[in-house]
Specification:
Elements lengths: L4 H12 L5 H9 L2 E2 H4 L1 H6 L9 H13 L3 E6 L2 E8 L1 H12 L9 H13 L4
Antiparallel strand pairs: 1-3, 2-3
Helix pairs in contact: 1-7
Length: about 120
């Protein structure tokens, strides 16, 4: 699938500025991961986050990653769940980084500022 360069750049910037690790994203490629597994010390212990996150912090970041197109929320017969998976865009980025032997890129100060501004005003660039 082909995505505009601006979409890819925004997605890379968003995940680079997030507290999540490549391990979480590679896990999400093959299975859904619940919000509870990413929160508090269990997220750090599982290797999903760099620091312990409250449920609110984790969910806010996950919702931003959904908005930029990296993740989707799992749905079951009852409706939405508290679990998340990669979208095709997310899979494409993770596959590319793994093929190149790379981790999630480190964000620059400019990346952090752009991500903060886009997240705050929800600019659909």
């Amino acid at each position: 699938m082909h995505y505009p360069r601006s979409t890819i750049n925004r997605a890379v910037r968003a995940v680079a500025c997030s507290p999540f690790t490549i391990h979480l994203l590679t896990t999400m490629r093959s299975q859904s991961v619940s919000l509870q597994d990413m929160c508090d010390l269990s997220g750090v212990t599982a290797g999903y986050t760099q620091t312990a996150l409250s449920e609110r912090q984790a969910e806010d970041t996950l919702l931003w990653l959904i908005q930029v197109g990296l993740l989707r929320r799992e749905v079951d017969g009852q409706g939405l769940t508290d679990s998340f998976r990669l979208t095709p865009l997310g899979r494409q980025l993770i596959d590319q980084w793994q093929h190149q032997g790379k981790d999630i890129p480190k964000p620059s100060l400019s990346d952090r500022f752009q991500n903060l501004c886009q997240r705050w005003v929800r600019i659909p660039v």
